[in-house]
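Blinded run. Sample ID left blank on purpose so nobody reads anything into the name before looking at the predicted structure. Input follows.
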Amino acid sequence: MEHMLLLSVFFPILAGIVLLLKKEYQTRDRLLVFVGAALVITGALACYAIFAVKDGVTLFYLTKTLPIYFKLDLMGRYFSLIVTIVWILAGFFSFTYMKHERNEKRYFGFYLIVFGVLLGLDFAGNLITMYLFYELMTLLSMPLVLHTQTRESIMAGLRYLFFSFAGAYMALAGVYFICRFGTTIEFTAGGVIEAAVLQENRTLFLIVTMLMLIGFGVKAGMFPLHAWLPTAHPVAPGPASAVLSGIIVKAGVLALVRVVYQLIGVEFLRGSWVQTVWMTLTLVTIFMGSLLAFREPVLKKRLAYSTVSQLSYILFGLSVMQPEAMTGALLHVSAHAFIKVALFLCAAAMIYQTGCTRVEELKGIGKGMPVMLWCYTIVSLGLIGIPPTSGFISKWSLAVGSLASNIPVFSWLGPVVLLVSALLTAGYLLPLTMQGFFPGEEYDASRFAGKEPSYGMLIPLLAFAALTVLIGLVPNGLTNQLFTFAAQVMQSI
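Blinded prediction complete.
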């Protein structure tokens, strides 16, 4: 049964390779049938692995002590379920959107390959396997950024590659030391390095941890190495922007959960200068990202700056190192994934149907695209944190956990920054809703008449909007699971 882990990872990779190597399809319908079948089969395999597989499996050994090993824990199951839901829905949205893009076969080929690589990252049972698939994800997702092959996309792809590699090399320094001093490289609650060894080499491991925080934080868009994100996401095709912003950036979050809570351990880091610097960087990123989004007139770039801010909500919750705050951070992983993917898909639908890219050009769009704009509005309320959405639950837990941490200054500064950011979020998301539905009696919105997207686009949007509300209405099961995990890795129970 454990070999289902390998099948889930390598089936979409092989399907993507076959698609890239195959000659052009005679008809577009055949291409979409192949891609749709691959997505559905991968989803079924992944769900079986997530819910049924308990044991781990070793693929091969890089050296005698470094196995490529897959095993699912709660974090792996949680992240891989989010990836599966988003990748399938966004993939089916792409069937309509990619009609007006060239090189569809190449796009879908890399889309399937990255699906498998992300599952490999989530299924990773040790540090080496995680790092290997983390690097593969960077390399194989770059063609999605470069897809349009314009000068802007090429420059954005190169920046994405440079920043990602710079961060990965910083993290690699930590990988060396953990492999050298750790009792194991498998993810273990509380850490894998003995307390006496950490204290004996305290300065070294604090520096190493800081390098890993910044290195993996690059993918999560944390200041000061966040600049790749607002340039890479807007130039990619709409569905690619959605999964880049909603899913691929979460690889950095997963890596940081593994490093802080399951490799180094919070007992060593709590109260150190590393925690202080990390909290400071996250709060700076939250405020800066929200402010830049508020000032940005181009819709997709506005949403990209929003991702910079919202991801640091998650990182702030992790940096507080308190069970309730960590629970809020992990809740925000799924909330942000579904909401931000939906927002980018809404932007893609608007661009596809109207050609408009700036917010002021979309005035009155609700007259012709009401269902799409209602989906945009619902998920926007979720991102702001309005009940009864998933965003409210996650941000409430973040604020409560921060206040309960009793960390000088940061315990109250965190909720203050979160509140200011929520107000800015309302300021950059809701004007589109208000002007879209209420452009004014004298405004002629006839140019948007009949522009409602097809069902192929609307169904994924409706699904994400429903998930945003559903998680907010019945959060207890998920919240309890995540809180138990947070308490265990902090050795609080």
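Unblinding after everyone has recorded impressions. The first helix runs from residue 3 to 21.
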